[in-house]
Specification:
The complex is a heterodimer of chains A (309) and B (451). Chain A has 309 residues and is an all-alpha fold. Helices cover 70% and strands 1% of the residues of chain A. The model of chain A has no long low-confidence stretch (mean pLDDT 90). The chains are: A mainly alpha (309), B alpha/beta (451).
Chain lengths: 309, 451
């Protein structure tokens, strides 16, 4: 069958229309492209350049090649800050997700006044981190804090939450549960999106609560869990404010997180080259973990309609 | 159907063109700015329109605005060719320095700024401040002799005058007179000794749990530990400020002694309590739970005490050096200012008697560093100062600044966590803990940029 010739005039009109559509499209995305290049890509590339220099803001930058990276990898404090941050990420994020899931399951129940509970669980996540931090300094106070009052009420001895190097990181992780509301809402939306027919079918097949949760709820919630996991890991690697306000990196550097050390290198010690090198190492770590999660997601994330491999 | 590629702006072409243009602009904007060039006088600026002098200072509250806004108005009225553009930044020394650095990095450095003795040396080694000695030498209206010497020295670095002090403090002992009397202890006198100090602290320490009264507090802070070390001949750094000496005698034994005060049942408020936040040493003092503690001469945190309180000199033993710590805040000019003459006029105005009188009357000032105002302080502020307020002024006669060197904030950042480990619940070995930070402190203290 031969291909029908398109008249030249019709072709020209179509090209004009396509050009017009393309132009409008590009104009619409232009502000974002501008913003991305000026406020994200530009500074990123500049910081990459700075990481190969010695630059102290007020002195001319001097090209030092990879010296900042060599110095970084020989700096005990760098490794300590990386360890502290990794601890916060790999202990804190799974627990955070677990409690967010528990909260989502709880507020998904059809109970009278459930909207009030949903709001109550969500509101703390709207509180600024600075305000949260000041509040939790009081809660963790060794003499007058609520946390120790509770422990003493149940017959246990009070703890030096933020003063004991062994407890400071776990204390900040406990504090992070205060703001599970954001993740809870996303998981709740995921729970609401699971078709009731699947539960009904499972019930007809004799599935108990646990089987329904394990075989229906959890698999269909994995996209939301995956999204939360990605966001939480990226956020946790950037933990800063709590340590900056509550512990100043102490006691004994046990909460010297990566970004706090980076901030001090840049704005207290003037070492912009060093701080930029740190920023790029963190970028590569976060990028690696994110890519790894996407690669592994095929094995545990199920999208409705997908065929399980 | 696809259109003809020559007629349609392809996505690739669009992104290439826009990236090239915007990327070049962005990179140019993000590149490190050049070092301060030292600036010209600005010559004929002010002929056509007033020269703007930017001024970075503490903001964020009514008092901050009250501190400078009336002065800005007065200055502008007296100098129609100059306008002052304040940049208000909430926070203290570190926050102001952070803002200063970001402004310099953005190529928008302020001409003048509020400064603190903690951050002065770190900036001075990098030539951030303008040396105002040539201006002082050429100006008959103002002299270094006008200022309290210790405070003036806080703004000197290797022969350069890197600013003028505004307010200053000397560290003294604040004590609860009623607790002394109740414990049968003699109140601190001009010649009291460390033996007297220990005796009265032990006598006042009593009770358990949240009701416990402690003889003393706040020695865990590095600045207060240092004073005790200085009295005994020790220091943070060697005389040439290149070696860390806190881990050597006679400094080390002072750290060990203060550690003993922190032991269970000791005379000192556990460092963990005051470091925990929420409740300050001032809160504990005003509620009658602390007998005495060292503090720089700012008394706002203890003024609400409903009992008799006063201040005293530090105890001193025979053979000790009588000394204390002096620290100051003031104003500096940026080395790269394009308007050094106008900025100097502003700084000189802030160093004048009218400005100091305004601060004392409008907002209160710890100790004005201008002698003539400091000397009249005891009369003008009599209603809010303790009975022995003269002591805080006398302390300037024998007080000294911290041995600021290199990245002094960084040195603080190393020493304080080490002391927290020694005095806190870890009860870390003083020698080993201080040895562990020695090389880092030395690196920070002798740090020379660009080498």
């Amino acid at each position: 069958m031969g291909i029908q010739e398109v008249p030249a005039a019709k072709m020209k009109k179509r090209r004009t229309l396509l050009w017009s559509e393309a132009r409008d499209g590009y104009l619409f995305i232009l502000p974002w492209v501008f913003g991305f290049i000026i406020f994200t890509a530009g500074p990123m590339l500049a910081s990459l350049y700075i990481s190969f220099t010695r630059w102290e803001i007020v002195t001319p930058s001097v090209w030092v090649g990879g010296a900042q990276y060599v110095k970084l990898f020989n700096d005990d404090r760098f490794w300590l800050s990386l360890y502290n941050t990794s601890y916060y990420v790999f202990v804190g994020v799974p627990l955070h997700l677990f409690f967010a899931l528990l909260a989502a399951l709880a507020v998904n129940m059809n109970l009278r006044g459930i909207h009030l509970f949903r709001t109550a669980y969500y509101v703390p996540s709207l509180t600024p981190v600075v305000a949260n931090s000041i509040l939790w300094v009081w809660i963790f106070h060794p003499e007058w804090g609520l946390a120790n009052a509770f422990l003493q009420w149940i017959g246990l001895e009070g703890l030096y939450w933020l003063q004991d190097p062994r407890l400071a990181k776990p204390a900040l992780i406990v504090m992070s549960f205060w703001s599970i509301g954001g993740q809870m809402v996303i998981l709740l939306a995921g729970l609401k999106g699971i078709p009731m027919e699947l539960y009904e079918a499972a019930a007809i097949d004799g599935a108990n609560w646990w089987s329904r949760f394990w075989r229906v709820t959890l698999p269909l919630l994995t996209p939301a869990l995956f999204f939360n996991l990605i966001i939480a890991i990226i956020g946790a690697f950037q933990v800063f404010t709590q340590a900056y306000i509550m512990t100043e990196g102490g006691p004994n550097y046990s909460t010297l997180f990566y970004l706090l050390y980076l901030f001090r290198a840049a704005f207290e010690n003037f070492r912009m080259g060093y701080a930029s090198a740190m920023a790029w190492v963190l970028f590569i770590i976060v990028l690696t973990f994110t890519a790894l999660q996407f690669m592994l997601s095929d094995r545990w994330v199920f999208y409705e309609g997908d065929v399980r491999r | 159907m696809k259109g003809n590629s020559s007629d349609i702006l392809s996505r690739r072409s669009f992104l290439r063109l826009s990236s090239l243009g915007i990327g070049a602009t962005a990179l140019a904007a993000c590149m490190p700015v050049a070092a301060p060039a030292g600036g010209d006088s600005g010559g004929d600026a002010g002929m056509a329109e007033p020269t703007s002098v930017s001024f970075l200072t503490q903001g964020g509250g009514e008092i901050s605005f009250l501190r400078y806004e009336p002065l800005i108005e007065d200055f502008q009225a007296a100098n129609p060719g100059i306008t002052i553009d304040p940049i208000w930044e909430p926070g203290g020394a570190i926050e102001i320095q952070t803002k200063l650095l970001t402004l310099i990095a953005a190529g928008d450095a302020p001409d003048s700024y509020w400064a603190h003795s903690y951050t002065n040396s770190g900036q001075a080694v990098r030539n951030i401040q303008l040396d105002v000695n040539p201006f002082i030498d050429a100006d008959a209206d103002i002299s270094g002799d006008d200022f309290l010497l210790a405070a003036y020295k806080d703004f000197q670095y290797e022969g350069r005058q890197i600013g003028f002090p505004r307010e200053t403090t000397s560290t003294v002992i604040i004590y609860n007179a009623e607790l002394f009397d109740a414990a049968g202890a003699a109140r601190p006198s001009a010649d009291w000794t460390w033996g007297d100090f220990m005796e009265s602290a032990a006598a006042m320490t009593q009770g358990e749990g949240s009701e416990r009264v402690f003889g003393t507090a706040d020695w865990h802070r590095n600045r207060n530990t240092w004073i005790k070390m200085w009295q005994k001949g020790g220091d943070v750094l060697s005389e040439d400020r290149t070696k860390f000496t806190m881990n050597q005698e006679p400094g080390l034994s002072q750290v060990v002694e203060i550690q003993d005060w922190h032991q269970d049942g000791g005379i000192h408020v556990p460092a963990t309590v005051t470091e925990a936040g929420g409740f300050s040493t001032g809160d504990l003092f005003t509620t009658g739970r602390i007998g005495m503690f060292p503090q720089f001469s700012v008394f706002s945190n203890v003024m609400s005490s409903e009992f008799e309180w006063d201040i005293a000199h530090f105890p001193v033993d025979e053979g000790d050096t009588r000394t204390t710590r002096v620290a100051s805040a003031g104003h500096s000019l940026y080395g790269g200012t394009e308007n050094p003459d106008e900025a100097w006029q502003w700084m000189k105005f802030l160093g004048g008697e009218n400005a100091f009188r305004h601060w004392v009357e409008a907002t209160g000032l710890n100790v004005p560093s201008l002698k003539v105002v400091a000397e009249s302080l005891l009369e003008t502020m009599a209603d809010v100062l303790p009975p022995s307020a003269q002591i805080m002024l006398d302390a300037f006669e024998y007080g000294r600044p911290e041995p600021v060197a290199g990245d002094w904030i960084g040195v603080h950042r190393e020493v304080q966590p080490a002391l927290n480990s020694i005095y806190g619940i870890e009860k870390a070995d003083a020698q080993a803990t201080l040895d562990a930070i020695a090389s880092r402190v030395e690196e920070l203290a002798v740090y020379v940029p660009g080498v």
